[in-house]
Known about the structure:
Helix content: over 70%
Strand content: under 5%
Shape: elongated
Oligomer: single chain
Radius of gyration: 22 Å
Distance between the termini: 66 Å
Amino acid sequence: xxxxxxxxxxxxxxxxxxxxxxxxxxxxxxxxxxxxxxxxxxxxxxxxxxxxxxxxxxxxxxxxxxxxxxxxxx
Length: 74
């Protein structure tokens, strides 16, 4: 309540918009990392490494699945 009453008006005067300070993107990242942790690891000390390896593999797969134009298939 303190922030809303005393600091938001100041931010609005300085920047014109308070959405620059939104934490929505960080919250979404936290949600995704938590989901990856519980779905993709065996809860060991190397969980972060397992998550990073999985994300790397997924990106490699996405990049390798480049569609070729139909005229090249014939």
